[in-house]
Amino acid sequence: MRAVKAVLGLVVVLAAAAGGLYLTERLLAASEPAATAGQGNAGPLRVETITPEPVTFADAVTAVGTARARQAVDLLPDASGRISRIAFQPGDRVEAGAVLLELDDRAEQADLKAAEATLAEAEAAFDRQETLNRSGSASDAAYQTARAALLRAQAERDRALVALEDRSLRAPFAGVIGLTDLVEGQLIDTATPIATLDDLSVIEVDFSVPEILLPRLLQGQRVELTSAAWPGRVFQGEISRIDSRVDAATRSLALRAEIPNNDRALAGGMFLQVRLVLDERQRPAIPENAVTVEGDRVLVMVADGNSAHEVEIDTGQQQDGLIEVVSGLAPSARVIVTNLHRVSDGAPIEAVPQERRVDAASAAPAPAPLEGGG
User: What is the pTM of this model?
Assistant: First the structure.
């Protein structure tokens, strides 16, 4: 009985296996024609293309610097005395020669009047002696004595004028007055600081770059400066001075840039990021996602008629999602930028222009590949 059951079980298993094999063969046979038919009906792959657009690329070096006014001075009085008038308010813009502070000058006014009286007497005495000398009624010695007295009187008058002028403090140049703690009636001497005066119409920034850049440095080269105080704003300036020596300790060269500052956005002592543009050029650019790197080869797919063609190119800098094309790509080339994972060399395609083109005008100069210290 057991033998019969074993035989029946074996027969059932064999029958199930034979049925599964039969069904599998039928399914494979049905799917192969369908796949063949699908492949035969597939059309060219639709892709979007762009043409290279000219973009401004730059070689630049970055550094840090500190701003300072083109002219800056700590104002000190030329004489000691009591302040009779303070003629400025902190923050005022003053012109060159403007009176900023006056000291009590009553004694100097009196000295000037006395010197002028003495000068008038000396002039009258000299005129008499000169007349007598011409007529022969006076000796040359008396004439020379009168002339010497006149010169001494003129010198005393000039000295009195200088002493009177020293009682007033004037702006040596046009600029902006800083803070002061002085008050009218206060006694001061020649060591008492009055205030600061800064010419902020132009800001100077000193910074340093590596000595290796010396052959590429010229006065007038463009610099771009940014400050944490003005996010998003770029200040334009140029190199005004190049130091004649390289720092032996740092092997760097000091430079000075000038930046117009008519709106007084910058002030002395501010920390600035400096970007010195060494060279600028116009080169065609394509999106980075259109580029494939295989070892040391850089490849792009271009539309050549109704088929894709693989082209090797030489590239340069990258900026804002764009990559510089140095060589290997024709200006009129249609670079494929979509479906790249499905495109192969020689594959049939349907190429259409991409609606959003590379915006060359909005591309800013490339970040600096070189680094310098300031």
Answer: 0.59
